[in-house]
Design a protein that fits this description.
- The complex is a heterodimer.
- Chain A is α/β, with parallel strands linked by helices.
- Among the domains of chain A are: 6-279, 3-Layer(aba) Sandwich (Rossmann fold); 474-651, GMP Synthetase, Chain A, domain 3 (2-Layer Sandwich).
- Helix content of chain A is 40%, strand content 22%.
- In chain A, strands 4-3-5-6-7 form a five-stranded parallel beta sheet, sandwiched between helices. In chain A, strands 16, 17, 18, 19 and 20 form a five-stranded antiparallel beta sheet that branches. In chain A, strands 23-24-25-27-26 form a five-stranded mixed beta sheet, with helices on both faces.
- By secondary structure, chain B is of the alpha/beta class.
- Chain B has helices at residues 48-55, 78-83, 101-108, 117-122, 126-144, 160-173, 190-207, 218-224, 242-246, 249-256, and strands spanning 10-19, 22-32, 37-41, 63-68, 71-72, 86-89, 178-182, 210-214, 227-232, 235-240.
- The radius of gyration of chain B is 19 Å and the shape is globular.
- Classes of the chains: A alpha/beta, B alpha/beta.
- The interface between A and B is medium-sized, with 15 and 21 residues.
């Protein structure tokens, strides 16, 4: 009989693999480990503790914090009671947190530490339903006297005490847990995940145990993950991708989940664990690539030129392989030399030495990033999916990686392209609806098909090709089809450009608003003795402007002439989720940005404007607001300068 | 908030310090209890650091007594005073630049180390156990001060704000009964100051040492201290809660000259 719920799967793991390591967390500088049997014990005690606080079937329990074993156990403990866990982004503002808690109607909130507790207390007046705020880390909270505030370890201890008092015939703890989860069925909701929502208020996606497990099982048919594999849990718990890998895939495969010490130590922890299975959105891969490029730039001329030459050859070979051809003989030789000389060291430095499965998903990735990692021997593949279908819908299997597709559907998933060109999905992993929002549910779920909102097509090999958000695909004034994301991804491949917003709907040409990458550009400025005081100053530095112009020219050379970026501006501030400009998963909220920056966009299309005055309200951490006045120079690029760009690119 | 009524943990009685003909402290008395944060304020040259230096044994008072937990420690050597439970941070951070953050904090554990040259040299057995115990204590402090990401970084390469935090960690490693903080927030930006304030409050929460804080940022002083002692020209001119100090005429005169109706800033509560 197949196991149909996540807590039942945990019980099964603990009985079959009890002594194997299930989780590790780096604490006090040492990796502390927990076996599956220990995890079961903790989950059981927490479940009984939550029951004591009044958590029952169908209730919701909000979890907010970094990736901590205790929070994953809390998630499973809630599920064991039939209570629905609702993970929320740990960097959410108090107002966002209030929205999620109020919308979910949660009576219990599990918060990691003082930072999260403070945010909840700030808005508690508007949350009459919240009875218990349970925190994991007591630091700084000792003298808080608010009612309903309690420690997670105390809740767990109370649960363990209750457990001890129960008559437990049979095999003790396991039997008790089995009885506890008896009432939980496969069609019960196992998770409510609030979507990042590029288009408006976030919606609570309800996923049943059946949907999560069916999706997990079909994914594992395509991508084998086993009990000896190591994963790193470092993406926000609130992102469904983390739940899918750190909970569903881990429970189904028996792979160990490793929690880093803190957000600042992820890079070092990554390298210490050397995970075999890594799932990361493109920005993480882009970030790793940018780090590499910074280091290569910093090396002496010999190392720099050798590394650049070999990496270039590797990327050309990877490109040829991706397009189904064979790499040039000279590049094959360079790759053979590069493997022991450069690539192995690069992989080791990045913590990718033992990597077997590397997957990117959540947003489109620039082909150059794909080529770089595949070139240096990391088998990076693409996944496409969304919260509403329990994460993956398509995955590129080994040996079928193509740069412009996101792979064929995983078993059980059917794809259809409707008359508007929108991708529709039918799968056992479909969600059970948006929580308390039947109207929104009806909008995306029609006749059993999920409307993804993405425009795409299926190619000859049955691979899905995503063009852009269906609503974002637009036309220039002359009718040229324009997919802003496509242009933006090309721009973001430059290590100096962190974010890009391309505009051009019903306009004569494409224009862009850019964010520089403060680390990489800062490093660049430092090496050239360019003095700057902060982000805004650095972004508006004329020499940085020249640098970025060179990068844009280089990108333009790769674009069809009609789609080349004619004018651009480097924004005075970074797009920030706190200002609602991008989502917590770093997707641009296009419509909002277009409205907010309307004067800048107008100036980009005003041939007489050479700069634009902005008065921006900047909100500091801590809530203070200040007005900043800046004049942003608008740079115009010659549309026919592709050839010159190549030359400019060579010495940049 | 205060731990019991067992009298002050640290007391200075009529402390007199002279440098040649200059009287740096002209008979100053003050005390601080466990769990209390006592702020020491006053214009430059008022004698704040001199008082802290005298307490920690750097200067020997010409008259008066320093009493720690009922015992007279006047005139003892700095290392002995440290062993008895007084730890401090320095105005100009004093760390070993070439050593890692971890090693620097481990230095702060020195007063608790018992293994001698022989036991440490053989290492296995006693030396090893002791090292593990101290490493654990250091790791707790690293976790507490949120500096795990720079655990292995050489202290000399760190930015100023972080070095101050490591300096605090080194002092904390001694598990002091009395913690003397000499301008822990100078040269910090707003965000770094907020962090430091939070750490000081958390330390008070977690371990309840008696804390003596020298600080120029009046907002911080008024916000977090329980009591304030004001020095001017080597004399104590006022003592009391932040609220009474803010409107005290002598204090205002010392800081602002004659200015009737003025008041020091309130803490931003």
């Amino acid at each position: 009989m197949t196991i149909e719920t996540l807590p039942a799967l945990l019980l099964d793991r603990a009985q079959a693999d009890g002594r194997r390591i299930a989780m590790r967390e780096k604490e006090y500088g040492i990796w502390q480990s927990y076996t599956w049997a220990e995890c079961l014990g903790r989950v059981q005690a927490l479940a009984l503790g939550f029951a004591r606080l009044g958590a029952g079937r169908g209730d919701r329990l909000v979890i907010v914090g970094d990736n901590r074993p205790e929070l994953y156990w809390s998630l499973l403990a809630a599920q064991a009671l039939g209570t629905v866990p609702v993970p929320v982004y740990q960097d959410a503002t108090a107002a966002e947190l209030r929205y999620a808690i109020a919308h979910a109607g949660a009576r219990i909130v599990i918060a990691e530490d003082q930072e999260q507790v403070d945010k909840i207390l700030e808005v508690r007046g508007e949350l009459p339903e919240v009875e218990h705020i349970v925190y994991k880390d007591p630091k700084g909270l000792r003298h808080y006297a608010e009612p309903g505030l309690r420690r997670l370890d105390a809740v767990e201890a109370a649960g363990r005490e209750d457990d001890g008092r129960r008559p437990a015939p049979g095999d003790g703890g396991a039997a008790a847990f089995r009885r506890l989860i008896e009432g939980v069925g496969p069609d019960d909701i196992g998770l409510i995940s609030y979507t990042s929502g590029t288009t408006g208020a976030s919606k609570g996606v309800m996923l049943s145990h059946r949907a999560l497990l069916a999706t997990g099982r079909s994914f594992l048919q395509v991508v084998p993950v086993g009990p000896t594999d190591q994963m790193l849990a470092y993406l926000p718990m609130a992102w469904v991708g983390d739940t899918f890998f750190s909970v569903v895939v881990a429970l189904l495969s028996g792979a160990a989940v490793n929690c880093p010490e803190s957000a600042e130590t992820v890079r070092g922890d990554f390298r210490e664990i050397g995970p075999n299975v890594v799932f990361a959105p493109p920005r993480v891969w882009e970030n790793l690539l940018a780090q590499c490029q910074v280091r290569i730039d910093d090396a002496d001329w010999l190392k720099r030129s050798v590394t650049r030459g070999l990496v270039g050859a590797a990327m050309r070979s990877a490109r040829a392989a991706l397009q189904g051809g064979a790499p040039a003989a000279a590049d094959r030789v360079r790759c053979a030399v590069g493997e022991p000389l450069v690539f192995a060291a690069l992989r080791d430095q990045l913590g990718l030495r033992r990597i077997r499965v590397a997957i990117t998903g959540g947003a489109p990735i620039a082909p150059e990033v794909l080529e770089f990692f595949r070139g240096i021997g990391v088998n990076l593949t693409q996944l496409y999916g969304m919260t509403e279908c329990s994460t993956p819908a398509t995955v590129q299997p080994d040996g079928q990686v193509k740069p412009d597709t996101v792979g064929p559907p995983i078993p059980g998933v059917r794809l259809r392209i409707d008359e508007r060109g929108e991708v529709l999905i039918d799968s056992p992993g479909l969600f059970s609806g948006y929580f308390r929002d039947p109207a929104a549910t009806a909008e995306v779920l029609r006749d059993g098909w999920l409307r993804t909102g993405d425009a795409g097509l299926v190619d000859r090999d049955g691979h899905l090709v995503i063009l852009d958000r269906a609503n974002d695909v637009s036309h220039l004034e002359d009718g040229t089809v324009f997919a802003p994301q496509y242009v933006e991804n090309k721009l973001k491949f430059s290590p100096y450009i962190k974010e890009a917003v391309a505009v051009g709907h019903a306009r004569p040409y494409v224009a862009a608003m850019l964010n520089i990458d403060p680390d990489v550009v800062g490093n660049w400025a430092q090496r050239r003795q360019v003095v700057y005081s902060g982000y805004t100053d650095l972004a508006q530095n004329p020499r940085v402007g020249e640098l970025i112009a060179g990068e844009v020219r280089r990108v333009n050379a790769l674009l069809a002439p009609a789609l080349r970026v004619r004018r651009f501006v480097v924004l005075h501030k970074e797009l920030d989720p706190d200002d609602a400009e991008i989502t917590r998963t770093r997707k641009v909220r296009r419509r909002f940005v277009a409205e907010k920056y309307a004067p800048i966009i107008d100036a980009l299309y005003n041939p007489r404007a050479s700069d634009i005055e902005v008065r921006a309200t900047v909100r500091y951490e801590g809530g203070r607001e200040a007005q900043v006045a800046r004049s942003l120079p608008i740079r115009t690029l010659d549309a026919d300068s592709a050839a010159a760009a190549q030359a400019a690119g060579a010495d940049a | 908030m205060l731990n019991g009524d067992r009298g002050p943990r640290l007391r200075a009685e009529d402390v007199l310090v002279r440098f040649g003909g200059v009287t740096a402290l002209a008979g100053v008395s003050a005390d601080v209890r466990a769990g209390e944060i006592l702020a020491l304020i006053g214009p430059n040259g008022a004698g704040k650091t001199t008082l802290i230096n005298t307490v920690s044994g750097v200067y020997r008072p010409a008259a008066g007594r320093i009493v720690l937990e009922g015992r007279d420690i006047t005139g003892r050597a700095p290392d002995e005073i440290a062993r008895r439970g007084i730890a401090r941070t320095f105005q100009n951070v004093s760390l070993f630049g070439g050593m890692t953050v971890l090693e620097n904090i481990l230095v702060g554990r020195h007063i608790h180390m018992r293994a001698g040259v022989l036991a440490s040299g053989i290492y296995w057995g006693w030396g090893e156990r002791e090292e593990l115990r101290h490493r654990e204590a250091v790791e707790r402090i690293i976790d507490f001060l949120e500096i795990s990401h720079i655990r292995k970084a050489p202290a000399g390469t760190l930015p100023y704000g972080l070095r101050k935090r490591v300096d605090l960690g080194r002092a904390l490693a001694a598990e002091p009964a009395v913690l003397l903080l000499d301008e822990p927030m100078t040269g910090m930006n707003r965000e770094e100051k907020e962090d430091m304030v939070r750490f000081i409050l958390d330390i008070s929460d977690e371990w309840s040492p008696a804390i003596v804080l020298i600080e120029h940022d009046m907002g911080v002083v008024m916000d977090i201290s329980h009591r304030v002692v004001v020095l001017d020209h080597g004399r104590k001119i006022a003592e009391g809660t932040p609220d009474t100090i803010r409107t005290n005429a002598d204090v205002l005169r010392a800081y602002l000259g004659e200015a009737p109706g003025a008041a020091l800033p309130t803490g931003a509560r």
